[in-house]
Specification:
This protein has six helices and 17 strands. By secondary structure, the chain is α+β, with helices and mostly antiparallel strands.
Length: 262
């Protein structure tokens, strides 16, 4: 039995299949330049599937279903935005990445102050398979204080926060958040001023770790992603990228194949 056709927000679809960012896609929709199956769309919440014909200025966006996909690993430095553009004029990841990757999709996000492993792909199918997956994500973190017993208990057992806005961006619309138990954590050093630890989680929610620790009055001073789904940075230098290895492609294909089954 096949899964139902997945629908995603129109601005995300445009971003995934063109050079436009999501913000730019929203502006196109507001300006009545986007149509779905010949109908002009103005509702920003509209969802679309790959079976729909989406046009910008009456020119269809082509979705290459059988495209041979590529996946790269990028070691993102601090001070870069994971986006195709930034209205504030800050450095984006595509300013550093080679121009051949300019239309690649970042799988998940790392905020401006975070660094480390970021996967990018030219395949919407790969993106959809990985971005909301429960694959393990491993981080190295430095906090501005000692971890309390309450914080450790929440790492072990999970916690639901009705108000998880502490640690979030000011413009975030996400208020409540359910934090699952951490897969694992290792406190590497702890003093009255700082705690350094390594954590493994299986979610990729918006600023999840910053929100989690902020609830316990701890600021994340440094955050570096070391692994995603078994893919590791290894010795990849900061601001450099590499292609998936043959073994990594084999594992990815097997994962996608298995997850298409019900």
């Amino acid at each position: 039995m096949k899964k139902e056709i997945e629908k995603i927000r129109l601005n995300k679809f445009i971003s995934h299949n063109s050079s436009y960012s999501r913000r730019e896609a929203d502006k196109l929709i507001e300006d009545k330049r986007v149509s779905i199956n010949k109908d002009i769309i103005t509702d920003l919440s509209t969802k679309v599937s790959n079976s729909d014909i989406v046009c910008i200025d009456k020119k269809p966006i082509k979705y290459e279903r059988n495209k041979i996909y590529t996946v790269i690993v990028y070691n993102k430095p601090k001070g870069q935005i994971v986006s195709k553009s930034d209205p504030q004029g800050r450095t984006i990841i595509f300013d550093t990445l080679h121009k051949e990757f300019k239309d690649f999709l970042p799988i998940g996000r790392l905020d401006y102050s975070s660094e480390g492993l970021l996967l990018l792909t030219n395949s919407v199918d790969v993106y959809n398979s990985l971005v909301h997956s429960s694959l393990e994500r491993v981080y190295k973190i430095k906090l501005n204080g000692a971890i309390s017993k309450l914080c450790e208990d929440a790492m072990k057992n999970g916690i639901f926060l009705e108000d998880a806005t502490k640690g979030a961006r000011e413009d975030s619309k996400i208020k409540s958040m359910n934090f699952k138990p951490f897969n694992a954590y290792q406190i590497q050093s702890i003093t009255n001023n700082y705690t350094k630890l390594k954590v493994s989680i299986s979610q990729g929610q918006n600023r999840e770790l910053r929100r989690f620790f902020a609830h316990f009055d701890l600021d994340v001073l440094d955050l570096k992603r070391l692994e995603f789904g078994g893919i590791s940075l290894n010795n990849l230098p900061t601001a450099k990228s590499r292609y998936f290895t043959k073994k990594e492609y084999e594992n990815l294909k097997e994962y996608i194949k298995e997850n298409k089954k019900i």
